[in-house]
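In response to the reviewer comment on reproducibility (Comment 2.3), we provide here a single inverse folding case reported in full, input and output, so that an independent group could reproduce the run without further information from us. The structure tokens appear first.
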């Protein structure tokens, strides 16, 4: 029996020793033992290489603006573990975490004795979320973010009302495959029989796979730039503007999340909201969509955490994410002196990530952080061509010095790993 929150989180994290365990056998076994909480949920399932969290938060804010209590399951967390399971943006309480852990420990112990072995950390947390939203705190709708891939991801025990697949890129290739088509196949694994799917996949190979899967399962497919369109109309003082076109109408929106790519994520949320309204009778008025998009905020995505000098956190942790960051720098900060603080994981495509970063920055500080797969500054240094980079051993002191000594046009962007950003954010926000 676990008695404290600290003990509960320590037990959950102890499951990390089991690593990543793709497959649904353990999840299905636990769902059976719990009398299938996943069947009691009204859910939206979100997969993709980048943009899952942003798309989720746009849709969450739309639903909240329409008056619906909305649960979310996301990863990773930024400040407190509880963020991963939230209702209307409010994390579950410490006491609820303790209750959930005590519910799942006997199941984990029993699973240890089977041929499948005990559940991984992510399987444990997914099980907790499913039970919480079905039995402890039922809500109108739950938005589930896939952890890795889709087909064999722990979250894929749900039968969602809508599946959303954001973009497809080359990430987690050791688990998902070496080609866009193979990766798209894993993402398309969340498509369910007869349930609509919305996607921003743009590559022909990815589209072919998703089209085939949707046709096989008789799932209506809403494909960006075929069935609906987003037209970027430029930056605004507070964010970005875009027009959304569908067969029904054209609409104009503004968001405060920075980056042209965020207008595509927002459009996925708009299309999903339209489906929830038309197919599932959710009462979502146009004003709720406008208000929800304008209010949406997701930490770690061009997240301005210090005003003067400007310090941004951006979780560009793969080549596609880095390309989006580079485009944002070119669009918004070409008059600024751009400083980069970079820490990344060694199992990422570092060469592709770093290749163009030098071209849009004036100074790049390379560092590392306390994480098992973190690359060393020396490992990062190997991928740079120009003499714009330097090694920083103490990133906390480096940021303190920047904030103290920076001039008006200086900006700092901290990037490379979402796990690094989760360590940096509280240090800056709490100063």
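Designed residues, in position order:
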């Amino acid at each position: 029996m676990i008695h404290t929150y600290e003990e509960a989180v320590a037990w959950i994290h102890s499951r990390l020793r089991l690593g990543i365990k793709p497959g649904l056998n353990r999840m299905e076994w636990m769902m059976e033992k719990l009398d299938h909480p996943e069947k009691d949920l009204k859910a939206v399932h979100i997969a993709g290489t980048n943009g899952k969290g942003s798309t989720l938060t746009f849709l969450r804010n739309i639903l909240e603006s329409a008056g619906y209590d909305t649960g979310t399951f996301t990863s990773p967390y930024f400040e407190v573990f509880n963020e991963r399971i939230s209702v209307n943006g409010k994390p579950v309480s410490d006491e609820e975490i303790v209750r959930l852990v005590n519910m799942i420990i006997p199941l984990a112990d029993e699973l240890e004795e089977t041929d499948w072995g005990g559940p991984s950390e992510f399987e444990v947390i997914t099980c907790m979320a499913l039970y919480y939203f079905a039995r402890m705190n039922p809500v109108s709708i739950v938005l589930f973010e896939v952890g890795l891939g889709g087909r064999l991801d722990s979250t894929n025990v749900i039968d969602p009302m809508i599946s959303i697949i954001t973009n497809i890129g080359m990430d987690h290739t050791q688990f998902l495959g070496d080609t866009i088509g193979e990766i798209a196949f894993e993402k398309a694994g969340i498509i369910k029989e007869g349930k609509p799917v919305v996607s921003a996949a743009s590559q022909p190979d990815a589209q072919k796979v998703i089209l085939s899967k949707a046709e096989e399962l008789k799932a209506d497919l809403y494909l960006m730039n075929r069935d609906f369109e987003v037209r970027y109309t430029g930056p605004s003082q507070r964010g970005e503007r875009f027009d959304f076109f569908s067969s029904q109408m054209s609409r104009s929106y503004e968001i405060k999340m920075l980056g042209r790519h965020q207008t595509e994520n927002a459009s996925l949320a708009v299309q999903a909201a339209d489906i929830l309204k038309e197919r599932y009778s959710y009462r979502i008025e146009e004003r709720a969509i406008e208000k929800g998009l304008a209010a949406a905020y997701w930490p770690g995505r061009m997240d301005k955490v210090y005003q003067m000098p400007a310090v941004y956190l951006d979780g560009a942790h793969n080549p596609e994410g880095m390309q989006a960051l580079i485009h944002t720098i070119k669009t918004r900060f070409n008059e600024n002196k751009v400083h980069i603080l970079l820490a990344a994981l060694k199992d990422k495509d570092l060469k592709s990530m770093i290749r163009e970063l030098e071209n849009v920055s004036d100074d790049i500080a390379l560092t590392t952080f306390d994480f098992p797969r973190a690359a060393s500054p020396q490992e990062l240094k190997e991928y740079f061509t120009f003499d714009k980079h330097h090694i920083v051993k103490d990133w906390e002191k480096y940021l303190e010095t920047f904030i103290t000594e920076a001039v008006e046009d200086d900006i700092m962007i901290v990037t490379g790993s979402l796990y690094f950003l989760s360590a940096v954010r509280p240090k800056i926000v709490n100063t």
